[in-house]
Automatic annotation (TrEMBL), chain A:
It comes from Deinococcus actinosclerus. This is Phenylacetic acid degradation protein. Gene3D superfamilies: 1.20.1260.10. InterPro entries: Aromatic_CoA_ox/epox (IPR052703), Ferritin-like (IPR012347), Ferritin-like_SF (IPR009078), PaaA_PaaC (IPR007814), PaaC (IPR011882). It comes from the Bacteria.
Automatic annotation (TrEMBL), chain B:
Pfam families: FeS_assembly_P (PF01883), Zn_ribbon_PaaD (PF23451). Residues 22-93 form the MIP18 family-like domain. It comes from Deinococcus actinosclerus. It comes from the Bacteria. This is Phenylacetate-CoA oxygenase subunit PaaJ. InterPro entries: Fe-S_Maturation_MIP18, FSCA_dom_sf, MIP18-like, PaaD-like, Zn_ribbon_PaaD. Residues 134-176 form the PaaD zinc beta ribbon domain.
Amino acid sequence: MTTTPSISGTELTDTQTRALLLKLTVLADDEIILAHRDGEWTGHAPILEEDIALANIAQDELGHAGLYLSLAQTLGGSDPDQVAFWRGPDDYRNTRLVELPKGDWAFTMVRQFLYDTSEALWLEAATRSTYAPLAEIAAKAVREEKFHVQHTALWVERLALGTPESERRTQAALTELWPHAAQLFQPVEGEAELTASGILTDLNAVHARWSDLVTRHLVDKCGLTLPDAPATQPGRDTHTEHLAPLLEEMQRVARQHPDAEVW
Amino acid sequence: MAEGGRQKAECPASSAISIQPSAVWAALASVPDPEIPVVSITDMGMVRDVTVSDAGRVTVTFTPTFSGCPALHVIRDSIEQAVRDLGVTDVEVRSTLTPPWTTDWINDDARERLRQYGIAPPAPTGEGQLIQLDAEPTRCPRCGSLNVRMTASFGPTLCKRMYVCDTCREPFEGFKSV
């Protein structure tokens, strides 16, 4: 996690800096937690190729988290390793979507598809950020995310149109995950001001494009049914009981060896 | 341009070894990509800039291929070591994300070496759509056939995918177009 953008962006006000720090943290937290869930398949995926694919995807997501947290550090945030390994569940700001246990293969692929499409569309819009360091990160990450979308879109299609059992599992996964996916489009505190100044992309516009894209794929192409999403739901500071044990495992080595420099 | 004697005469007070950027580029051209050792980091287009200050400080700017590439630390250390081996003591290695790395920067000579090594070189990137379900056409590096199947869209490293050739029956790795 050492990549640092070489050119600085526009001058940010203190309020903007605070809001942007929070936004970068929530983006990174989603990537870190989802990467950990993906990593749980290492050695357990249904076939070797998928074992490798999911490890690749997790590695990309961690790379993106590294970019976000390195930028956050230049804005006064803590060292990326500190942020990842020394915050507890009360301080993590990931969505509940990404912390749910990995479930079966259908659950993993549907979740990854919902997440990857939202990330790819958000990044694509963020390449036009008026804040140069963020636009640079987005331009880099969106190229990688494209491969995730290709991969998971194909898997969801294969499972939904496969056997009655794979279809049943895919629909069950979508029914459980869909309400949580809406959380990806909750703005952070202060986001409106950042959007007004062009630093962040308009989240509602991304949400609309995402709904259109996933509906075309999941409903029109794969024949799945979208459940109703809840009108309101708790924010990113509310977690399920699944986050604490995840962090305990993820952070165990770092906390046992706080002075380690070489891993 | 390289007239060492004349330069020395102009800077008699400086004890630093005067070095030309071209010498640094030449040294970096022998630093292998840690994951694909038949090509160097300059073949891959990862080295973006080399500058030498009046005081003799060498600054190398490189760009990562993939943001999660685990070889980044190795590459950074290798760059620094290659420059130090030239007798330079003041070395700075910077990374940049802009413009983002593309496989279009891999030079023709390196593409041929990749092919001989058994890795299908990347197709030109073009202006692809965000959601593309069809992968770019790929040629078998062994027999040249286009009658190939992708068997896995991810491979042993972030930059590659897995294929099998239906003409010569050999499995092979192919570079993604990024």
